[in-house]
Write a structure and sequence with these properties.
single chain, mainly beta, 3% helix
C-alpha cells in the first residue's frame, strides 16, 4: 500500500529509502526513531565524501569523511529502548550541534572541526542520501528528511504505524532475520 504522505516506516534491517534531495550541514536535519538494535539512520555520499548518523549500543555516532580525513562526534546516550527519540542536527549561530533528549554536543564551528562547514561537496546536488540502511526499527520523518512519495524511492519499507511491539524492548521473535 502506498501512502500519499508516508511519514512513518518500519525498516527490517534490509530496508532503506533513497531521498532525491540532500541535507545541508548549515541547516536543520532531524528525524525520530524507535529501535532495540539500532543501525544507520542516514548517510549521504558524494564521491569519497560521506556524512552519516548511526544509533548504536553506546549512543549516537555522527561521522563526516572529507577525502581521507574523518571527523566523529559521539553522543553517549542509551537509545536502544524501543521508545521514540528525536534527534536533531542543527546549525545555528555558527555552531553545528547534534542533540537528542536534552543531550547535545558541538560537531563543528569556526574553531572546531571547521573543515566540515567549509566543504560544499558534502551537500551538493550530486549527493546520494539513504535513510535506514542496516537499521531495524521505525523511523519518522523530520526536517530535511521528508518521506514524501514524490521525493523518495523505498525498498522493503512497511509504511504506516510502527510494527514493533510496544513492550519495553524488542523480543527475540520480533528480531528474526533470515540470512541467505
Amino acid at each position: 500500500m502506498v501512502y500519499a504522505q508516508q511519514s512513518e516506516g518500519f525498516f527490517n534491517g534490509s530496508s532503506y529509502v533513497r531521498l532525491y534531495s540532500s541535507i545541508s550541514l548549515q541547516g536543520h536535519t532531524g528525524l525520530s526513531f524507535r529501535t532495540c538494535v539500532g543501525g544507520e539512520l542516514f548517510s549521504q555520499t558524494n564521491g569519497p565524501n560521506k556524512i552519516s548518523l548511526e544509533v548504536r549500543n553506546d549512543g549516537l555516532l555522527f561521522s563526516v569523511k572529507i577525502n581521507e580525513e574523518s571527523f566523529d562526534t559521539q553522543l553517549n546516550v542509551r537509545l536502544l529502548d524501543n521508545t521514540w527519540h528525536l534527534v536533531n542536527l542543527l546549525y545555528r549561530l555558527g555552531n553545528l550541534t547534534l542533540s537528542v533528549h536534552g543531550h547535545s554536543k558541538i560537531v563543528a564551528n569556526s574553531t572546531y572541526n571547521s573543515e566540515i562547514l567549509r566543504y560544499p561537496e558534502l551537500s551538493s546536488g550530486n549527493s546520494v542520501l539513504i535513510v535506514g540502511r542496516d537499521f531495524h526499527g521505525c523511523l519518522l520523518e523530520g526536517p530535511s528528511l521528508v518521506f514524501n512519495v514524490s521525493t523518495v524511492q523505498s525498498h522493503n519499507v512497511e509504511w504506516g504505524r510502527c510494527l514493533l511491539s510496544t513492550s519495553s524492548c524488542c523480543t527475540t521473535k520480533s528480531l528474526t532475520v533470515v540470512i541467505f
